[in-house]
Amino acid sequence: MSKEIRSLTIKEIEERFHKELSRKIPNPEEVTIEKLELTAQEILTAMRVNRRVNVKFECKLIPPKCTITITW
């Protein structure tokens, strides 16, 4: 299931990620999100090339880990 998110900025991606994180984990500020900016840049690159990308946010409590899956 893809949806258009061409206008998403890195800041919006970060905000969306943190919102999803705070829904799943009680203290999201304690979780380190590595390479978020790089991932956001990859999303923007994918959008420039393909214009349609699907971004899936997954957060798990045990172990406390979040991943962003990008498909296009």
SSE layout and pairing:
Layout: H1 10-24, H2 36-50, E1 54-60, E2 65-71
Antiparallel strand pairs: 1-2
Q: Main sheet?
A: 2 strands, antiparallel
**N-to-C terminal Cα separation, in Å?**
10 Å
User: How would you describe the shape?
Assistant: elongated
What is the beta-strand fraction?
15-25%
Written account of the structure:
The chain has 72 residues and is of the alpha+beta class. The chain has one domain (10-71). It is 42% helix and 19% strand. The chain contains 2 helices and 2 strands, in the order ααββ. The protein has helices at residues 10-24, 36-50; strands spanning 54-60, 65-71. The chain has a two-stranded antiparallel sheet. The chain is elongated and about 35 Å long.
